[in-house]
Amino acid sequence: MSQNYDENEIAQLLADKNRQREAFGRVVRQYSEPLYWKIRRIVITHDDANDVLQNAFLKAWNNLGDFQNKSKISTWLYRIAINEALDFVRRQKNKISADADLSVANSLMADDYFDGDEAQALLQEAISRLPDVQRTVFTLRYFDDMKYSEISQILGTSEGALKASYHIAVQKISDFFNKHD
What we know:
The protein is mainly alpha-helical and 181 residues long. 73% of the residues lie in helices and 0% in strands.
């Protein structure tokens, strides 16, 4: 995160029609990388993550008037980005149902931008099989070490429900690895 980025100042600039473009440019520079990684863990591949990230920023720009400064800019952006990523995954599932032999692990191992090993690819395979909410909660908690309170703000769900989703996701991933051992 940039040291000269002041959330309150940026929020004020975003509200100023004459300075919106400049402020939004700073938002994009500030959040591109963290949003990319949140999206990438949901959609898996580099190219898809880049596409979803661009769509998320476009949606944020087009809906700037809806940002009411009741939450942090980051929370608002994460909500948009995660929803865009989940929408992308849903669309992909509909396309892939005809191509059932294509696995996430195989796709990742063939991705030039993936630098992990087979165990990491299998973890992504297990995560991709989770329902959307469990996948999102697991990803934000496990990879990003987000607190349940933060995830609750992003997803608009109670912390108790999130904890249950995370626990179930961990169990399903564990079961997946036990079957693939």
